[in-house]
């Protein structure tokens, strides 16, 4: 069983990989242990990234009533190997609050993490986390 990473400035983190994003039970296990945010470092392929990346991230944030931090490799790494990119941060309501552009160059995006807002979302629509 995967354990959360406690005591960070943005709450308790649940660390996963981009493939884990497709399996909600893994996220639910971490959320039931007190996570306030889930992380998904990614190397999604362009085809599946365009179809699924943002939808799955927003879904995890909404279902989990948590922040989602999704770093993402972007661009062509070598001939024949490309990654979709689109790193983003999603809030507990499912809103994308920060997003990197798709230049293929290293970037960082930032967003304010409001743990009082997270508590409000969870209080107003209790899901048992």
Automatic annotation (TrEMBL):
InterPro entries with a match to the protein in the record: C-N_Hydrolase, C-N_Hydrolase_sf
Residues covered by the CN hydrolase domain: 1-115
PANTHER family referenced in this protein's UniProt entry, alphabetically: DEAMINATED GLUTATHIONE AMIDASE, NITRILASE-RELATED
Protein name as it appears in the record: CN hydrolase domain-containing protein
